[in-house]
Amino acid sequence: MPIIFYTSNLNEKMYTRLIRNILLHIDTRPNTIKPFLDNWTIMIRPLSHTDLRFFQHIKTTSGQTITNKTPSGVTGQYTIDLFMHDVDDIRHFMENSDRIQHEICHAKLYKTPKFVSGVHSKILETTGEKIKSFKIFFWTNRWKFWQRIPINIIDIREDIKHPYN
Asked: What is the DSSP letter of 49?
């Protein structure tokens, strides 16, 4: 699977490592990363490439309209299109990583009844908190200093093991 970058400022190595790290934690079964990466294409585009007409009828899980100011994505037939902040800093990396993990969760449940509901049912806000997620830590070496970045992942691990329950 190619990870194709249409951005000019993102650290491609760092984002590729992030995607692999998310896949490693989301599906703990042995030997699942390579088949996923062989079958899926991930395209990372700047926010300016967001076609708002496509998102016109879609609302976020909090009921807001999708804009070209916040990261968004679409998961389709073996393709993930991500629209990211094209800025190389940690704050934007964290915001981008949230959208990346969300779309990877959809992709891992592709062709199952839980493709949409398995992800969105876990992030609907009922008490102001995510219903079901877990935290991973992504380590990066920037400017000769190691930095640990927390990333919340939607917990679809049971849905991956039992997609038809």
From this structure: G
Tokens of 86: 């094209």
The answer on pLDDT for 126 being more than 50 is no
pLDDT digits (tens, 9 = 90+) for 5-58: 999 999 999 999 999 999 999 988 888 889 999 999 999 999 999 877 776 666
CA nearest 40: which of 96, 109, 113? 109
| Helix extents (H) in the chain | 12-26, 33-39, 90-108, 117-120, 157-161
Q: Residue 73: CB partners within 8 Å, gap ≥ 6? A: 80, 81, 82, 83, 99, 100, 102, 103
Using the structure block, give the residue that is written with the tokens 């200093």: 145
Higher pLDDT, 139 or 64: 139
Domain ranges of the chain: 3-161
Only one residue has tokens 């640990």, namely 148
From CA 101, how far away is CA 15, in angstroms rounded? Answer: 11
Using CA atoms, how far apart are residues 23 and 36, in angstroms rounded to an integer? 9
What is the chain's Cα-based Rg? 15
* Segment 64-87 mean pLDDT: 88
Strand locations in the chain (E): 3-5, 41-46, 72-76, 79-84, 133-142, 145-154
